Amino acid sequence: MEDKEISQAVIGRLPRYFRYLGDLRDEGVERISSQELSELMKVTASQIRQDFNNFGGFGQQGYGYNVDFLYKEIGKILGLDQTHHFIIIGAGNLGQALGNYMNFERRGFIFSGMFDKNPDMIGKEVRGIKVQPMEAMEQFVRENDIDIAVLTIPKTGVVDVVEKLVANGIKAIWNFAHVDLNVPEGIQVENVHLSDSLMKLSYNFSRYMKEKERS
Amino acid sequence: MEDKEISQAVIGRLPRYFRYLGDLRDEGVERISSQELSELMKVTASQIRQDFNNFGGFGQQGYGYNVDFLYKEIGKILGLDQTHHFIIIGAGNLGQALGNYMNFERRGFIFSGMFDKNPDMIGKEVRGIKVQPMEAMEQFVRENDIDIAVLTIPKTGVVDVVEKLVANGIKAIWNFAHVDLNVPEGIQVENVHLSDSLMKLSYNFSRYMKEKERS
User: Fold this and answer.
1) Quick one: which of A64, A183, B84, B132 could link to A31 by a disulfide (CB 3.0–4.6 Å)?
2) Pick among 3.40.50.1820, 3.30.230.20, 3.40.830.10, 3.40.50.720: CATH of A84-195
3) Testing the interface with B: which of A180, A206, A208 to mutate, by most B Cβ within 10 A?
4) What angle do CA B32, B33, B39 make, to 5 degrees?
């Protein structure tokens, strides 16, 4: 069913469907039509049908989708039926925020270790996980079946850390450092460039203000 | 020069150009061709030229772009030549991380206030800014020329807070809450849905592992 290549744009929209369906499910909604979902999510019904057709369509279009079924199916597609262990590199505020975020665990992402190069941070606890020195990272990744590394360190340390992670079998990196990563084929990277996001907001804001001044 | 509507895809790429040009500038590079920039950024040279043509092209294609000029021009387009005051709603780890991030200030974003509904947080200091109770937010926004609100609160509180922010003249919202916002026309919103980003990583990772198993 998932044999053809699916565009990253479609994949980028799946978590949003998952989020809305999870809310509907929590509210006790059992069925929803693509039209209703379209109004709720402010995307066209045809977009929704096209997106779902990438995964076989999830059937039942005549009388709407079964919310619980659709929620679980999209969860499976997203790999959320599996458990993934992750470590956080960088125990600053952002690393701590991510470590403390309980929802990740509900989705099967298990916070398993935390590392920092600052000696003052070592031994500090974040949700029951003790911060360890960077020197302990490589062995920990090898011995604890760690799939995902979360990078919340300044960009200066990134190249060295990524090399070590990859050499020790990490398979995915969630990157918050302000730099694009160079990784071998097969290592998955998802970037969250917070500054880029703020600049995009700034652009839209500035443009709107300039237009208002002119009119 | 900026009269035509520019697609959000192009705008989304501007901060990345800005980041690379800033690094080149810091390294003392004076000129760069679209070909060199293309190799560095791993996008096609024609993509770069097309993107830049939205803003008049920045000239000098024959012997390359002037790095400092291009950096400053893109900065202006992004509105970074202006000063914006922002407040953070939600003084948890994520709010603190964003408040402590010095780079925002370098870009003209001035951290001006922080609010939380948890009485234990009131009076706590984040980079010299005292956390205030939520009740003080509306007056503060009105009286301190606040353009941008950063939302780092759980989704349950969002509707009420956004209503108050909009009523008191906020113009842009950087939203980290796990919910899409409903705002009037003219209010700019940029979402950072961290869970969505992690799920996208999970999808790409799961798919790769399944393909490897099959082959």
Assistant:
1) A64
2) 3.40.50.720
3) A206
4) 95
* B43/A contact by beta carbon, under 8 A: no
Q: Select B8-77's CATH number: 3.60.21.10, 1.10.10.10, 3.20.20.140, 3.10.180.10.
A: 1.10.10.10
H/E segment holding residue A133: strand A129-133
What pTM was computed for the model?
A: 0.89
* Lookup: tokens for A199: 């600049």
Q: Which backbone phi and psi does B130 adopt, to 5 degrees?
A: -80, 135
> What is this model's ipTM?
0.88
- Residue ranges for chain B with pLDDT beneath 50: 1-3
Task: Inspect the interface and report whether the beta carbons of A206 and B19 lie closer than 8 Å.
Answer: no
Structure tokens that stand for B213 in this block: 């198993």
- DSSP 8-class letter at A165: H
Which of B24, B42, B78 to probe the A interface (max A CBs under 10 A)? B78
From A77, A180, A203, residue closest to B79, measured CB to CB: A203
Q: Considering only CB atoms, which chain A residues are within 8 Å of B98? A: 194
Q: Is the pLDDT of residue A174 over 80?
A: yes
